[in-house]
Amino acid sequence: MDFIADILLAAGAIGAGVYCFVLGRRLNRFNDLEKGVGGAVAVLSAQVDDLSKTLTAAQQTATKSAETLTNLTGRAEDMSRRLELQMASLHDIPAQPDAAPVAEAPAAPQPAPPPPATPAAPSAPMFARRAQTDTTGDAA
Predict the structure, then answer these.
(1) What is the pLDDT of residues 71-93, one digit of tens each?
(2) End-to-end Cα, the chain, rounded Å
(3) DSSP string spanning 12-38?
(4) How is 57-87 classified by DSSP, letter by letter?
(5) Do the beta carbons of residue 139 and residue 133 sit within 8 Å?
(6) Helix (H, G, I), strand (E, B), or coil: what is residue 133?
(7) Secondary structure (3-state) at 139
């Protein structure tokens, strides 16, 4: 009986050894850096690093672009204010007729300019007045 128990014990040990050998080979293939999941994890890790670097660079570029755009917008608003002021100051300048040269002899009279063409009568009034309402709703 001891002999049969030793044979079964040896067979179990050999079976466990074969099982461990097969499992070890499968695990090595699983963790292989070129073909297995280990390779996929390594590739994904490298891609995450590249994407994080790209994201950082994009954030810095966006920040610089936003600052530049803010500066340009401020400059454009300043120029707009200046142009509005210049346009307003041009309306204040009276129209001056061209002064005749002092040293020249009087020139021959020029023919009178033709009278301006009368525009066709508009079909609708040029300006319309709206009735102003007060707080009671009656027209003023």
Answers:
(1) 999 999 999 999 999 888 887 77
(2) 126
(3) HHHHHHHHHHHHHHHHHHHT-TTTSHH
(4) HHHHHHHHHHHHHHHHHHHHHHHHHHHHHHH
(5) yes
(6) strand
(7) strand
Q: Which of 39, 43, 17, 19 is nearest to 29 (CA)?
A: 39
Contact 11, 3 (CB under 8 A): no
pTM: 0.40
Paired tokens of 50: 């590249």
Residues in contact with 27: Cβ distance below 8 Å, sequence separation at least 6, in sequence order = none
Whose structure tokens read 């002092």? 102
- Pairwise CA distance, residues 45 & 38, whole Å: 10
Highest averaged pLDDT of the listed ranges 42-46, 82-86, 94-98: 82-86
Phi and psi torsions of 87, nearest 5°? -65, -40
Calculate the alpha carbon distances from 32 to 11, 46, 60, 63, 115 in Å. Answer: 31, 16, 38, 42, 99
